[in-house]
Every structure is written in C-alpha cells, then in structure tokens.
Amino acid sequence: MYIYDSVKKTKLLFEPIIPQKASIYVCGPTVYDDAHLGHARSSLSFDLLSRTLKALRYEVTMGKNFTDIDDKIIKKVQETGQSLEEITTHYINRYQEEMRALGVQDADIEPKATESLEAIESMIQGLIDKDIAYVVSSGDVYFDTSKDANYGTISHKVGDDEENQSRVEHNSEKRNPKDFALWKACHGDEDICFETKFSKGRPGWHIECSAMIEKHFTHTHGSDEYSIDIHGGGADLLFPHHENEAAQSRCATGHELAKYWMHNGFVNINGEKMSKSLGNSFFVKDALKVYDGEILRNYLISVHYRNDFNFNEEDLLNSKKRLDKLYRLKKRVTPTKASKPNIAFQKAILEAMSDDLNISVALATIEDMISATNDKLDENPKDKGLKKETLANIELIDKLLGFGGKEPFSYFQIGIDDDTKEKIETLIEARNQAKIEKNYEQSDAIRDELSAMGIAIMDTANGTVWEKL
RNA sequence: GGAGCCAUCGCCAAGUUGGUAAGGCCGUAGAUUGCAAAUCUGCUAUUCACCAGUUCGAGUCUGGUUGGCUCCUCCA
Questions:
Q1: Which nucleotide's C1' sits nearest to the alpha carbon of A41?
Q2: Burial profile A150-167: b = 16 or more Cβ within 10 angstroms, e = fewer
Q3: C1' nearest to CA of A169: which nucleotide?
Q4: Can you list the domains of chain A with their CATH numbers?
Q5: Residues A414-452: pLDDT tens digits?
Q6: Residue A2's beta-bridge partner residues?
Q7: What ipTM did this prediction achieve?
Q8: Å from the A250 CA to the B70 C1'
Q9: What's the CA gap between A72 and A76, in Å, rounded?
Q10: Which nucleotide in the DNA or RNA is closest to residue A312, CA to C1'?
C-alpha cells in the first residue's frame, strides 16, 4: 500500500507501527449543523482507505471524533433554548444516519470531546507543568509555540516575522502571536463550562483530538515514535488544526502524533469552495432526498480524494450511468451463487486502490470486467461458472468500494411504488401480446406510454425487463 | 503581503521513478432488434494552458508567462 503523505508531500510505502495493524484517526465534524457534501467526501475518502487496508488484510482501527463543545454549538444553545446535549445528540444521529446512507462504515471509536474532558485536562495540566502551556489572567490557557522546536513542520509555515498579514488574533497576554488556546475560560452565566484545576472553562478546538488519540490509541497502536499510523482530515485542517495538534502531542507525550498524514480535497460548487461563510453549502440530507445514497456515494468517490471535487448534476448523472451498467450485468448473472472472484480482476482492482486509492484506475478495471463479461455472456448466456465468478466480482466491488450490493432488479426500481409496478407489468404484458399478434403500432404505443412514465423497457432473452430512467 | 496547489479530447478523468497519452459520458459507423432499448465491435487528443531550457527522448524535470483555486480566521 502506498499513500501520499501530505506533510512529506510525497507518496510513501505504508509501513504501520505494528505489522498488519493500521490505526487511523480522522477529524470528524463539529456538530452544530447538518452535514454537507464536504463532510461526506472526507468521510468517504477515509472509508475507502479503511476498506482498502482491510482488503489488504490489515486489522484496521478507525477513530473519528465529534466536536460537541464549541462556540458555535453554544451559540445554538443560546438561540434555540435547547440543551447542549439535545443539539449535539441530534446532529450526531443525523450525521451517522446520513453517512450510513452513503455506505460509510461506522468508525470503531467515536469519541466526543465532552466525554474526554479528563484526558484533555490532564494533557493540558501536563503542558502547564512543563511550562509549555501558560494560564493568562482571564483563565485562558495558551500553548507556547516557541517551546516547540518543531512547530511548523506539519504545515511548513515557517518564519513568521509578524510582518505578514496573518489574521491571528492579537492578545497582549500571549507570549507569541502564534500561541493558541488550549482552554478557554468561562464567559459568564450563559456559557457552558467545566471545572478544572487551572480554570473553569472549556477545551479549545485542537486539544481534544490530541487527548482523544492519546486516550484511545497510544496503548494499543502507538510506539515510542508515533501515537498512530495515519491521521486524516480535510485539506483545510492542515493549518492550524493539525499543526497545533501535532505540537501539543509532541510536547505532551514526547513522540510524534502520526506517522502519516492524509488530507482530502474540497467539494466545490461552481468552482468555489463550499462553505458556510460563502452560503453555498449543499447538505447531504438534501442530496439524499433527490438521489439514492449509493448513487451519491458512487459519484462522490469517483474523483481521487486529493483533488478538489466540483459537484454538479450532469457529472452525477454520468457516474450513475456507470453504476447502471454494473447493475445491468448483475441482472444478467442473477440469480446465482457467488463463487470466487476472478484472480486477475481482484489483483488489478486491489493494485489500483493500493496506489494511494487510485479510484479512477479501479473504476476502469471494473469497466473492463463488465465489458468482457457481457461479451462472453453474449456468446454463452448460460455460462454458470462465469455467472458465479461475476457475482463474486461484484461482491468484491461492494466490499472494497461500497457499491453494487443491492438486489439488481430493485436497484432499477428505486422510488416506484407497488401500484405503479403493477401497472407497468400490465402494460408490458399487453405489449408482449401485441407483439405476438405483430400489432407493432399497438406495441410501440404502449412503449411510448411507459416511456412517458419514465420507464425504459428492454427485450432480453429472458423476457422483457424494465428500468426507471 | 506570505505559503501552497492546479491547468490532459466537447464534458468528467487516470497517467510512482522521463520512453512515446487509461477509462467513462457524448458523438459516430456497424452487429443484434419488427423498430427500439440493452449488449458487443470499430472510429473519435501526433497531443497534454503558453514560452524557453535540460535530454537520444518530457504531459512527466528546470526557469518564466498566463489563467484558476486554497491556506495564513471557524471550516471536511
């Protein structure tokens, strides 16, 4: 397995801390609003990583956190009058539901910041004891970036002369402009705060990840050099979030946080980054109202995870056509029992994914397999061995890439209710009768009628089948 | 102002160590079909934003130009 390390900026052979075990930690969402397509893409990217590593027989431990205490959540609490827990629970449930709809496998560990306060406090206290962190008069605790010689090695942002136009907040009590908050002191009665030895307040954004990784991974997957194998997240987290995480962990534990860093690209709408501030967010829940989760998944993973992804409906329909072809093949080999996948196919698709998740090549091998199989099936429609093998191939695709697992006839009938189905069947019967009588005017009229209903029909050796367009 | 990324067929999109441009959609010709659809087969970039350089050889390396994007503030 080769992966692109976005800190070293090169593709590296994946050599885990413990042979055949892979620990992955991905920064999850701050749960104050619904998940948008960007969350989905990040989730999907690391889902593919996890699935690929599993297919390569690694024992994968995946961690993904929920930031459930933060300024925006508190603002929502104040606005809505709901409790913090009500809000975060709601969005966490939504998030999990939607990601599952996209075929994302659940993480093994899903820690919440509010459930990790002890670990957070002890890590901060440790840093204070070493004088790497300091408490200011307000009660805020800052990390002293000047104490970490390696600060800046993650994002390669070095040589800050303070002359740049950095928009770092200016706080006179900070020792260095780049110092960041580990802990934010309470701001009055409206605030949500926790008691600690240093002050009453709540964790800063970066500390929770460090603390949670320390708490959940270090003893099972860590080493003297690294806490975990792979740390992932969106490209925008590289700085300052991951830089700061790395600094905290390095100073608190004496070893590096992650051996490899991976970052996924953005989802753009009309060529621009999708974000709250631009007001062009596209929520997963809205997309799921229009498109089946599997179709969305198939589309969102169709571009390499590191590239930016330009979301548009035309491309989505394009990728749906590719998925349709896979399901048409599945129809041809159903019903049967899967045997073993084709060795060459299995090797090719795994090799593609092992190369830093080269999904394009993986999809091309699928096209190859579909085409070759259809060809053979045209020659010999009753090749049982081929059918069994093909079904196994498709099962492999489902396991590795997370699509193609549906029952093929129902795939083409998503969103059609039973009454309509009955009507369609009746019309097809009538058309077949007309065809037997060679009344082609009649049969074509029926086909037009079905077409007007959004139903396409195809006459096959096994009778007439239909698909929703 | 600082840092970085990207630019490959009408559209989407691969292309580690330089060796002579995957795949899909669309289009098109044919096989098949009562006609279609589905399926199969053939065709579809002498060329990789532009300019210069290194090299026997560059989409791939170097320098420059143009255009687009991101980060430096919460952000997947």
A1: B76
A2: ebbbbbebeeeeeeeeee
A3: B73
A4: 2-269 (3.40.50.620), 313-406 (1.20.120.640), 418-468 (no CATH)
A5: 889 999 999 999 999 999 999 999 999 999 999 999 999
A6: A13, A355
A7: 0.95
A8: 27
A9: 6
A10: B12
